[in-house]
Design brief:
single chain; 40% helix; Rossmann fold; alpha+beta
Length: 441
Amino acid sequence: MRPLDAVRRFLRVHDIRDTAVTAALSGGADSVCLLHCLRACREAFGLRLSAIHVQHGLRGEESLRDEQFCRTLCTAWEIPLTVVPVQVPQHTGSLEAAARECRYAAFAAHADGYVATAHTASDNFETMLFRLVRGTGLKGLAGIPPVRERYLRPLLQVSRAEVEQYLRDQDIGYVTDSTNLTDDYARNFLRHQAVPLLQKQNPALEQSAAETADILRTEEDYLAQAAEAAYAQARQPDGSLRGLRMLHPALQRRCIRRFLAENAVPAGYSQVTAVQELLESGGRLEMERGGVWICVSRGILFPERPRTAETLLRIGKNCLYPGTFVEAALILREDTDKFTSVHKKFTDFALDYDIIRGCARLHSRQPGLRMIPAGRSHHVSVKKWLNETVPPQKRQRIHYLSDDSGLLWAEGLGPAAHAAVTAQTRRMLVLYVHESDTQCT
């Protein structure tokens, strides 16, 4: 589709009239084409048109060249331009993703009205392919939405080749980002290597993908609405879900995914399908985060969270869980041999009493517990240790001891390195865990 026709149709279909529109302008072919088309439609649709250029400064002189090109272009076309310099963090994650976050933050802070971005059918197909390679669902395969909140993508039905032809026909120049010419980024690799091979099988690949994306977006929207209604009907006041077994598997999965998300549990494919199987078999399933159990009983899906228990440690008998006691004894280092022989039937752990800061608290499992165990040089995730060494039925009855500095001791894992008994230890705190028929008081 010709770019100008596509933009006119987009504005008409989505009723974008008599409003402010800010075009995201990089200086590349796609953004220059979009700005030219919006300028041509400005009077007919009553658009208060402006442009915004985000200066990342990542490519040195080339970045400055791009900024100057945008300034010159907007002056010639009499379009107000805002240039926003940003500092892209380069220490975490993907630089490409970090730059994108900076752009959208700049749009949010400095752009008026709608923000029009120059994503094309070629970009959309690359996005669909990229998500397919990484793994996705229907929403991901639907690609880039034409409208999302205040963001407009008027060129989604136009290929990159059609954009470039339009600019040649109009004798309009543009700049080229040199990083787009390399295969350093995964998207560039797909663009330069995979897409040309696929286009040999179907020369109209990008247009076919645009039509497929439109179909998938429509069906995704329908399923999302159906799942919303099903979830509202299934959800009970106590947070449980009833009647999921009667739903189509597609709606089951969407309801389960939302249920897991509401309970702060990862909701990937493996977790969702595991819960789906639980609907048929019944029972309990421990999820990865926070020790949450997902349970099904008589067709009812509900979360079961471990009982959070905590008590200040006292010398003598301590109880967190019915039938289990932790006895704490304070002894001098020279009395160690005698004391141990008396209590050798118990499982004992010892730590340096004098390093305790503030109040020592005996407690049940909590999210995010970490420590460096005695004899090791690196932190250990308590969750990972539990999953690898402790049977599931025992994980919710493990005892932990913490002070104001953090975790000091974990039952079965031992003391933290900084709390371990050394040659300089004067007083030792010894803990004995044992079973008893006596109830907690």
